[in-house]
Amino acid sequence: MQFGKNKTHAIGNIIAGKGKDACKGGVIMPKRESCPDDHSELEKVLAYGIYGTPVLKKDERLQFLGQLRERVIFALSEIQVKREEIPDQLRQALNDIRASKLVVKGTTGVDAILKYEGVAKEHGVKMTTVSDPKFIGSIGLVVVSNHAVDVPDDQVFSTSVIH
User: Do 161 and 69 form a contact (C-beta atoms < 8 A)?
Assistant: First the structure.
């Protein structure tokens, strides 16, 4: 199988990282006059392999422990998570019918993780621990829904969470 001159050049540009331009669907493809929708499967596979799968709202996910803000029902800072007492606001959020998962930042410590794992079990909510050095901000715990929820910031964030 032989590629035409243009195909070989385009694939070479993807591999070399030259002439990058954002294209429809968030896929980075070689720079061209326009961004056509008819990229070959090979070009798409190469682009995904080199640049990774496109992620929607990446900065937002890094702030909310891998979750979308629109799904967050409640959040605590890392400092609040490490405290001994469990806030009543968290228990209310876990009782919310929309709550599907409790996500705790892995750097908060084993004692805090075990404490919140027990709280999640009490309320019948799944709990997961996440760790990523790319996470930004001070959020240490979020209660999330499977769907978008309309919860204003003043109700999501406890008073000492800095955002």
Answer: no
For residue 64, the SS3 value is coil
What CATH class has 58-156? alpha beta
E strand or H helix at 145, and its extent?
A: strand 139-145
Comma-separated ranges of CATH 3.30.1330.30 domains in the chain: 58-156
Rounded Cα distance between 161 and 117, Å, is 21
Q: What is the pTM of this model?
A: 0.65
pLDDT for residue 38: 61
Q: How does DSSP assign 69-104, residue by residue?
A: GGGEEEEEEHHHHHSSSPPHHHHHHHHSTTEEEEEE
How many Å is the Cα radius of gyration of the chain? 21
Secondary-structure percent of the chain, ordered helix, strand, coil, rounded to 5: 40, 20, 40
Confidence of residue 97 (pLDDT cuts 50, 70, 90): very high
User: Minimum mean pLDDT among 18-27, 54-63, 150-159: which range?
Assistant: 18-27
Burial of 136 (C-beta count, 10 Å sphere; 0-12/13-18/19+): exposed
Secondary element (H or E) of residue 21: strand 20-22
